[in-house]
Amino acid sequence: MKETLMDILCCPLDKEALELEVTQKEPNQTETEIIDGELVCTECGTEYPINDGIPNLLPPDMRE
Amino acid sequence: MTDPREQRDVEQVYQPAEDSHLLATTACERIRADDWVLDVGTGSGYVASIVQERTEATVLGTDVNPHACQQAHSHGVDVVRTDLIDGICGSFDVVLCNPPYLPTDPDEEWDDWMEYALSGGPTGRAVINDFLDALGSVLDPSGRAYLVASTLSDLDAVAERADENGCETTVVGEESVPFETLVVLEITTKH
Question: What residues does the Methyltransferase small domain cover (chain B) (predicted)?
Answer without folding.
Answer: 21-101
